[in-house]
């Protein structure tokens, strides 16, 4: 892992199309490229203008980084970081993540809340390996995810909640979003680890999310080889009503419709009832068969030795109150442990 005290050998791609609010909110206001040059004067910076194609710029930066025995950098939102991580993993390069989007989930989880904190990690050679989540289809295609994967109502739930949150606040917006989405949604029929399921949603977080509940503030562990997998069962009588009442009364953790587990891999088949899936917030078409699996320690990233937590961090999305129960104990995939209860994650309301 190279130490890059002045940034020499670091090749950064700045995506100008990404939301820029978080850079000013978490760091100091001003031009992002000027900030980068002040912190790391010898870094090579490529800019992707609004409407430009990010992928070839990342490929070019990766070639230059490899030739310099350096590192690949990205300043952009979660979608930009996802693409850069794919390139860095493919080229066996360390990745440097500068917050440059609206939410910056992965950067916040790394502790690189500002351009300055990221630059300090680069100067001091502070880095660690993190897991990569992979969605692999039967045809061999795959999607990488650093944060989350989901099917069912989850993507629409997040979209509606985020639209309402600034005006109403997090919890009222979540309640209204849930009622709105559930009024017209229908559960999907899939097969999970060989067991037919009817689900309102299935979510996989690439790590351990805290605090357990509908709005975790961060992913507390980015390694360890496990997914956090909550799901909402849609097969029970009056499942729609049960879900709404359980959420509104704060009892979802003990509801019969809530299931959760931690697993290293999961097979989901018979997805003909699912039109799309969300991968790090990006919606893509769902194939008929997929497998969620981990590339354990699949990416090296620069990050502080002791990442600071940020008060009031933007929520990662919507998770459900965690009263972990045994689910799908009949899982037959030899590569994945049977779904089981998670020790040390008690039931209860989230704050």
Describe what you observe in this structure.
With 351 residues, this protein is of the alpha+beta class. Helices cover 28% and strands 30% of the residues. It is built from 9 helices and 17 strands. Strands 5, 6, 7, 8, 9, 12, 13, 14, 15, 16 and 17 form an 11-stranded antiparallel β-sheet that branches. The longest helix is centred in the middle third of the chain and has 15 residues, at 154-168. It is elongated and about 65 Å long. The two termini are 39 Å apart.
Tally of DSSP β-strands: 17
H/E series, N to C? Answer: EHHEHEHEHHEEEHHEEEEEHEEEEE
Q: Please outline the major beta sheet.
A: 11 strands, antiparallel
Low-confidence stretches: 21-30, 310-351
First-last Cα distance:
39 Å
Beta strand %? 25-35%
- Mean pLDDT equals 80
Number of alpha- plus pi-helical segments: 9
Shape: elongated
Could you say which structural class the secondary elements and strand pairing correspond to?
A: alpha+beta
The residue fraction in helices comes out at: 25-40%
Radius of gyration: 20 Å
Key descriptive features of the protein:
single chain; 351 residues; alpha+beta; four-stranded parallel β-sheet; disordered C terminus
Question: Short summary of the structure?
Answer:
With 351 residues, the chain is an alpha+beta fold. The chain has helices at 21-26, 32-39, 54-67, 78-91, 105-110, 115-123, 154-168, 170-184, 239-248, and strands spanning 10-15, 44-48, 71-76, 95-99, 127-137, 142-145, 148-152, 188-192, 195-205, 208-210, 218-221, 227-233, 258-263, 265-269, 276-279, 282-285, 290-302.
